[in-house]
Design goal:
This protein is α/β, with parallel strands linked by helices and 327 residues long. It is 33% helix and 20% strand. It has eleven helices and twelve strands. The protein has helices spanning 39-42, 52-64, 80-92, 120-129, 140-143, 162-165, 169-184, 196-208, 238-243, 246-259, 265-276, and strands at residues 2-3, 9-12, 15-18, 47-49, 69-74, 95-100, 134-136, 188-192, 214-218, 282-291, 305-313, 316-324. Helix 7 (169-184) packs across helix 8 (196-208) and helix 10 packs antiparallel against helix 11 (265-276).
Length: 327
């Protein structure tokens, strides 16, 4: 069972039951220093909190015991990619905290905030089984209280690629991540490579604002046919799903060209577009080859680059990328 933030209450299959008298926290928290405890042994200790004070109380308990904390921020609708981040987090710290918050600030007026999937019970069960210690589900008014005015911008990184296609999106991302980091104050923050621009911006923000956190990336998790795992894949029709591999196959073409010695960004992108055109349902939003650190376009691939692609299939917009460094 998960544990409610209400004293003495345990959530079992979504229902609240009373904890036996005298059990205290001993029924929830094991002794100190339990790095890499198997998920099967810790799955019954997931604390579910919605309030910031309850979150901070538990964080302070862990800190007093000298335990390290890894954090995975999510918007829910979890898939294997999210769970791979949890697995990395468990291997890197004593405690794992996860947040689920569908952030309204990062959605544009014509985007999918209202219909974004919210399978709450399924997500909680997945995280419990994965051995998460704490799940924080903040409410909108907690993170954006009345009178909220402060926004976080990362100049030079937020207006390109995804930022050009989704104006204001990254202001929402960096603002909410700054709030989450301030509340949890983790030692390690785990992010996915699939959202490479987002990860790069958060790395820069954490450095510029002196957040005492190590930002780590985990590789993109893919379906057997190469499609990057995404919460939005569930929007795809069968026909769209069959052609969604256009993104990963265009990246595969770029990799093949680079491995063959090609160093012209224009010719690499031409190869990618040739592949994309073979999937008529996939409509390119952008294909780009940029410096992996500055996100500025490059003409010659002579240092580490990010090769990024975005496309629409019906009403669903997908992204993918790879990073490449010449040897």
């Amino acid at each position: 069972p998960a544990v409610s933030e209400r004293p003495g209450v345990v959530l079992s299959n979504g229902r609240a039951t009373r904890r036996p008298r005298g059990a205290g926290n001993a029924a929830v928290v094991a002794g100190p220093r339990r790095r890499r405890t198997p998920a099967s042994e810790s799955s019954e200790r997931m604390l579910l909190v919605t309030s910031t004070p309850a979150l901070r109380r538990r964080i302070m308990e862990w800190r007093r015991r000298g335990e390290s904390i890894a954090f995975v921020p999510t918007m829910g609708a979890l898939h294997r990619g999210h769970l791979s981040l949890v697995e990395r987090a468990r291997a890197s710290a004593d405690r794992v905290a996860v947040s689920i918050f569908v952030n309204p600030l990062q959605f544009g007026p014509r985007e999918d905030f209202a219909r974004y999937p919210r399978p709450v019970a399924t997500d909680r069960a997945l995280l419990r089984a994965a051995g998460v210690d704490l799940l924080w589900e903040p409410r909108v008014e907690q993170l954006y209280p009345p009178g909220d005015r402060t926004r976080v911008h990362v100049e030079g990184l937020e207006a390109v690629l995804e930022g050009a296609s989704r104006p204001g999106h990254f202001t929402g991302v960096t603002t909410v991540v700054a709030k989450l980091l301030n509340a949890i104050q983790p030692d390690i923050l785990w992010l996915g490579q699939k959202d490479a621009q987002q990860a790069r911006m958060i790395e820069q923000m954490a450095a510029d604002l002196a957040f005492p956190v190590r930002v780590r990336r985990a590789a993109t998790v893919r379906e057997p046919d190469g499609l990057a795992c995404s919460s939005r894949n569930r929007y795809l029709s069968a026909e769209e799903r069959a052609e969604a591999v256009a993104l990963s196959r265009s990246l595969a073409a770029a990799r093949e060209a680079l491995q063959g010695g090609e160093r012209s960004a224009a010719r690499v992108m031409k190869q990618m577009r040739r592949v994309m055109r073979s999937f008529p349902r996939a409509r390119e939003d952008y294909i780009a080859v940029v410096d992996a650190r500055t996100l500025e376009p490059v003409r010659r691939i002579e240092r580490r680059v990010l090769i990024a692609v975005a496309a629409r299939l019906g009403a669903t917009r997908l992204i993918d990328n790879l990073e490449w460094e010449p040897r």
